[in-house]
Write a structure and sequence with these properties.
Elements: E1 11-16, H1 50-60, H2 74-80, E2 89-91, E3 108-112, E4 116-120, E5 126-133, E6 137-144, E7 153-156, H3 160-164, E8 177-182, E9 188-196, E10 210-211, H4 263-300, H5 309-326, H6 344-350, H7 382-385, H8 389-403, H9 417-430
Antiparallel strand pairs: 1-8, 2-3, 2-10, 3-4, 4-5, 5-6, 6-7, 8-9
Helix pairs in contact: 4-5, 5-8
């Protein structure tokens, strides 16, 4: 196997920190966080998500995980959690619990589906997992990679929250994707600045620190780029990192489940990390505000259900941010068609409901924008359906107003009349438990 010794050695790294588990001598003081009190009880409440359900099956003997010499429990775990191998993306910044295992030659692999993320390092001690929990937001886990008679996925509630309950995650246990410079060893250069990344970020600022396989025409990005030295001289020439379809000169592909770090998978990953956080923020804020109202009403002997004006504003504020994320407000445009290399796009298109005309919210454009029908597929998830009723009601009413043309504000001007009608028709046929006013 041949490696390219002259791979560029400065990186504007985009690091998926949802699997960061940052090492730090200081424990996260979660007891001081609002979400560790009633009504959330983040650290003490029992999680109910795909990972906790899998562990319950392991405990009952209804499921086993196979162990392989090369990858440990990774292949079996992905199968058990229905995470497609084709979702693999490769990141080489040292932003993980196992940072000593990560470098441009040995990037960390991340696999994901709609509500699970799995991180794998070569010769790593553990697999890193995060699950989207309808009540607790992002819940973090590790699975020891040593072969065991009864493997156990352990919940992590300390170090992880140092990174994952800050303003960057909207103050809730969440996911984040960020851009930062990284040196030849994979160390983040925090003094050079950082950039948060989601579907509103221009393509030219994405994917540094990631390997990117796929074609994208003349559009520029920061993927496949590493430069030696500690001084950043911009603009950085990354011409060799564009339209890369083969990573064999950068990594040993035999050490990963696939040889890809798919460009389409990266775009979906960034989008859903944002939407997940917005949903969790709306859930936490609404539940906390309603709990405060209940306490205050008892204290002041107000009629049950009396709602403070501040509570109404809080529900609207966080709910509006969900609507904006769901309907792709501010999405960065594409100027050239994009195509991946792993087959992820083809798998992504087969998941989820279709209407009677064969249309789906997973239908991709990938020429001028991400989705053919700009509405997030995460509307079908348990996290969305388990929003507190006042928040869910607000979000669905606002989406209906936008899709029916009642709201023609500038932030939704990217939606044409055909877009609005298409999304409305698809949701009417495929989304369960919509309010009656959504029906024709």
């Amino acid at each position: 196997m041949r490696f390219m010794p002259s791979l560029r050695y400065l990186v504007r790294a985009t690091s998926l920190s949802c699997l960061c588990f940052a090492m730090t001598p200081q424990r996260a003081l979660v007891a001081d966080e609002d979400f560790d009190r009633e009504p959330i009880l983040y650290t003490t409440a029992a999680p109910i998500n795909r990972v906790s359900a899998m562990q319950a099956k392991l405990d009952k003997g209804e499921l086993t995980l196979d162990h392989s010499p090369e990858f440990g429990y990774l292949p079996s775990l992905l199968k058990a959690l229905e995470v497609p191998v084709e979702s693999q993306t490769l990141v080489f910044s040292k932003t993980s619990l196992q940072l000593r295992r990560i470098s441009p030659r040995t990037p960390r692999a991340i696999y994901f589906n709609d509500d699970i993320y799995v991180g794998f390092c070569q010769s790593g001690d553990v697999l890193e997992l995060s699950a989207v929990d309808p009540q607790l937001g992002t819940v973090f886990y590790t699975l020891d990679q040593r072969k065991a008679e009864a493997p156990v996925v352990e919940r992590r509630t300390d170090n992880c929250l140092v990174c994952h309950s800050s303003s960057r995650t909207e103050g809730i246990p969440g996911h984040l994707v960020r851009s930062l410079y990284v040196d030849a060893g994979g160390q983040p250069m925090l003094s050079a600045g950082t950039r948060m990344v989601d579907h509103t970020t221009p393509i030219e600022h994405r994917w540094g620190g990631w390997y990117v396989t796929g074609t994208h025409g003349s559009q520029k990005h920061m993927g496949n780029l590493v430069i030696r030295g500690r001084d950043v001289q911009e603009p950085v020439d990354n011409s060799e990192g564009q339209n890369v379809v083969d990573l064999q000169y950068h990594i040993n592909p035999d050490r990963y489940l696939t040889p890809h770090s798919d460009i389409v998978a990266l775009m979906i990953l960034e989008h859903q990390a944002l939407v997940h956080n917005r949903i969790v923020k709306a859930s936490f804020d609404t539940r906390q505000a309603l709990a405060y109202d209940e306490m205050l009403n008892k204290t002041l002997e107000n009629p049950e259900g009396t709602q403070l004006e501040s509570t109404t504003r809080r529900i609207k504020s966080t709910g509006e941010r969900v609507v904006e994320a769901m309907l792709m407000a501010g999405e960065a445009p594409l100027t050239q068609p994009m195509a991946g290399t792993s087959g992820y796009m083809e798998i992504f298109l087969t998941i989820g409901p279709k209407d009677s005309r064969g249309r789906s919210l997973r239908d991709l454009d990938m020429a001028t924008r991400m989705f053919k029908y700009p509405c997030s597929f995460l509307i079908y998830t348990d996290a969305f359906d388990n929003l507190p009723q006042p928040s869910r009601n607000y979000v669905l009413q606002r989406m209906f107003d936008v899709l029916t043309g009642k709201d023609t504000s500038e932030k939704f001007a990217h939606l044409s009349n055909d877009d609005r009608l298409g999304i409305l028709e698809i949701l009417r046929e495929t989304k369960k438990n919509l309010p009656d006013y959504w029906k024709i």
